[in-house]
Amino acid sequence: MARPLAHLVVSTGLATLQWIQTGRLAPTIAPLISGFLIDGDHLVDFARYQASGRKSEGRIVLPLHGWEYAILLFLVRRILGKQIIDGLLLGYVGHLVVDQITNTTTHPLTYFLSFRWWRGFPSNLFTHTSEAHVDWMNGSLTELWKHF
Ligand SMILES: [Zn+2]
Question: How many angstroms does the Cα of residue 113 sit away from the middle of ligand 1?
Fold first, then answer.
């Protein structure tokens, strides 16, 4: 499972490339923002699980994890041509590539939001065991970052 340190290293590397290419602050910070904020969507599933009285529904939504957003950012970049969109796209793609490579998935299309939606957001797309998907949701909110 990808840890925050892996995302920090990748995002910092991409931010450095942005700094070298643009010399501007906003496009440089953009990959750091998009490379980290994406995992904030774990809070959605955490809150949903807590609100249900910790009853596992066997579902994980992760609404910000989806290659569709990268395609959308790419199209927006083509239309607006802004360097900050390049930075957001780099950070976002860097995050998903790290997740795709390091996280356990049971289907190659798991990181497509539309695919997960079509399948009903089953947690078994992310793990081979039914209990593993609730490990991070059974912990405290302050320790949630350890499972990103
Ligand atoms: Zn992630």
Answer: 13
Q: Is the pTM of this model over 0.90?
A: no
- Quote the ligand 1 centre to 79 CA distance (angstroms): 27
66-94 per-position pLDDT tens digit: 999 999 999 998 888 788 999 999 999 99
Cα of 25 vs centre of ligand 1, distance in Å, is: 24
**pLDDT tens column, 85-132:** 999 999 999 999 999 998 889 999 999 999 999 999 998 898 765 555
Question: CA 101 to CA 66: how far, in whole Å?
Answer: 14
Provide the total of helices (H) and of strands (E) in the chain, helices listed first: 7, 0
Q: Give me ligand 1 centre to Cα 53, in Å.
A: 25
